[in-house]
Structures are given as C-alpha cells and as structure tokens.
Amino acid sequence: MLTLDGSTGEGGGQVLRTSLGLSMVTGQPFRVHSIRARRPRPGLMRQHLCAVRAAAEVSGATLSGDEIGSKELVFNPGAPRAGTYHFAVGSAGSATLVLQTVLPALLLTRARLRWSSRAVRTIRRPLRGTPSNARFSRSYDAWAATCPVPFLLTASIQPEVDVWK
According to the model, what pLDDT value does residue 162 have? Predict the structure, then answer.
C-alpha cells in the first residue's frame, strides 16, 4: 500500500483528489496522512468527503477515516463501474472538484458523459453542488472547459456540456 503525504505541494485537497482518481484507475490502494495540512481548517471538509465517498461508490472501494475533519484516509479500490450515481456536496464546495476525482475512473467504464453547471452527469449521475469560483475551488470555466472537455474531444469522446445561469 502506498503512503502519501497530503501536505505536499499546495497542501490542500489536490493530493487527495489526484490520489483517489489514480487509485481507481490503477487499482492501487493508498493511505494519505496530513490531509489539507496547509489550510486554515485542515482535514476533510464536506466537499472532500463527498469526493472520497463518490470515488468509493464508483469503484466499490473500502475506506477508513472517511469523516469530517479526518487528517488520514485509507482507500482500497475495486474496479470502476458504470451506473447511476448521485453525489451531493452539501456545502459551498465546488462540484467540479468532485467530478475531477471520479472522471478518470468513469472514463474507463466507457459510459456516455453529460456535464452541466448545476449537475455533473455520467449517464444519469448528477452531482449537486456549487460550481462556483469559491476560494480554493475551481469553477467550471477554470477547470472543465479548459482541461477535460478539450481532452475528451481529442480522444473522440463527445461529452454533453450545458451551462445554466
């Protein structure tokens, strides 16, 4: 099992999100400590916990440490599965950050992708949250429109993109 330091780099949630995404794709379990150690409120916040649980649901993973405020997590993934998922962030956390976590694994399922600014859908998989420019969160414009959507198009994957105001 890999052991990762969550305070690496910017010390926010990116190490966690990237680790979850790569773990689901490779099947490699990991333990991460010092989650969000460089933030004013370290540990898992609601949007990070949503990303963790979304990754677990998509991959059938087993977890430990999946609670608000936890500074350590163990994630042991299974194989990503197509299906219908609902991921409610439940806070001002950016829904795009949860999508960033599960998108690599969902691409492996070869499912039809659908994205909207109020919901993230893969087949019929809505993700409700705030796709805003909240502090430390990337908006749809800053992430999805410039990163995964152009990549998906070059890979001949046709996601549906709706932006609602």
Answer: 53
- pLDDT category of residue 87 using cuts at 50, 70 and 90: confident
Residue 63, pLDDT score = 97
Tokens of 38: 């460089």
| Residues contacting residue 150 through CB under 8 Å, at least 6 positions apart | none
Query: What pLDDT sits at residue 7?
Result: 94
Model pLDDT for residues 50-86, shown as the tens digit of each residue:
999 999 999 999 999 999 999 999 999 999 988 878 7
- What residues contact residue 108 under an 8 Å CB cut-off, 6+ apart? 25, 80
What sign has the CA pseudo-torsion 91, 97, 102, 103?
positive
User: What domains lie within the chain, and their CATH numbers?
Assistant: 2-162 (3.65.10.20)
Contact present, 125 and 86 (Cβ < 8 Å): yes
* CA 90 centroid distance within chain: 14
